[in-house]
Write a structure and sequence with these properties.
Layout: H1 3-65, H2 74-80, E1 101-106, H3 110-117, E2 120-126, H4 127-136, E3 141-144, E4 151-155, H5 166-177, E5 182-189, E6 194-201, E7 204-212, E8 217-222, H6 227-232, H7 253-263, E9 278-283
Helix pairs in contact: 1-2
């Protein structure tokens, strides 16, 4: 056998081995790719199933909170598809004078505020449908507004008069305020005669005042009266229940609305030059 023939046969064997290896690797790759596709499909199916279950649960929750709606109603059908069950057509800001409590936060987006407050099941909604949902589901849902005058409102959130003590309520607000530049908090309810306002700056409570007429106590009195309170004469409001009640001055809803305007946004929106937008309806 000549040198060239020997070389040719050796090369043929080498090429044959390489071709065989490539063929085996190709088959292995096909099986691996098929296995990966199966795993990916299985994972996708599991994720889709979880989403379906979650949507179904949300639909049932909406139906439970709104017993008058039918399963075939636009609200229920929208939730079933994962869409917002509320009107998402941008509209102008609406007054919220009928609400008993709200937060006004500067230095944050609606999404950041929803996360910080631990709100759940957020759905996009315009002002009209969002406020309606929060009003009809008192202390269950809130409306988180779009940014307005540099602030985000959390309407329907009752910061005071809910927990067992003012200390507990302030502890919750302290954690929220720590995330934002400024936060003001308001509560007013004529039945129990509670009227409270508080202001946080850089996470610290600078001023808080409130009156609880039902119990005849000064609910909150921390920090010095702000320049706005002094200018309005609110520094003359009762701070000591041992005073002469015949001449004492007591806080009411008008005081709360006025302080809300002085510190941020008035519930009647008299100080707002707003534009059309949408916010979010969220579960507490």
């Amino acid at each position: 056998m000549g040198f060239l023939e020997t070389l040719f046969k050796s090369a043929s064997r080498t090429i044959g081995r390489e071709v065989g290896k490539k063929a085996v690797n190709a088959v292995v790759d096909i099986f691996d790719d098929d296995d990966k596709k199966k795993k990916s499909k299985s994972k996708a199916d599991t994720t889709a199933q979880k989403k379906t279950v979650k949507k179904a649960a949300e639909v049932e929750e909406i139906k439970a909170e709104n017993p008058n709606i039918a399963a075939s109603s636009p609200m229920a059908m929208a939730a079933a598809k994962g869409d917002s069950p509320y009107d998402t057509t941008p509209d102008m800001p609406c007054p919220f004078v009928e609400f008993n409590g709200w937060l006004c936060i500067k230095g944050g987006t609606p999404q950041e505020i929803i996360k910080t407050l631990g709100l759940k099941n957020s759905y996009e909604a315009n002002w009209e449908s969002g406020l309606k949902a929060a009003s009809e589901n008192f202390m269950k849902k809130v409306f988180v507004s779009p940014v307005i005058n540099g602030c985000v409102l959390v309407i329907g959130y009752i910061p005071f008069g809910v927990k067992n003590s003012v200390k507990e309520e302030l502890a919750v607000l302290d954690k929220i305020a720590d995330k934002f530049d400024e936060m003001t908090c308001f509560a007013t309810q004529s039945t129990v005669d509670i009227h409270v306002w508080a202001k946080y700056v850089n996470g610290k409570l600078k001023r808080g005042y409130g009156w609880l007429g039902e119990s005849g106590v000064v609910y909150l009195n921390q920090g010095n009266p702000t320049p706005e309170e002094v200018r309005l004469g609110y520094d003359k409001l009762i701070t000591d229940t041992d005073c002469d009640w015949e001449t004492a001055q007591f806080a009411d809803t008008e005081h709360v609305f006025t302080m809300s305007k002085e510190w941020g946004i008035s519930p009647d929106l008299s100080d707002v030059d707003g534009k059309e937008g949408t916010g979010f309806v969220c579960d507490l």
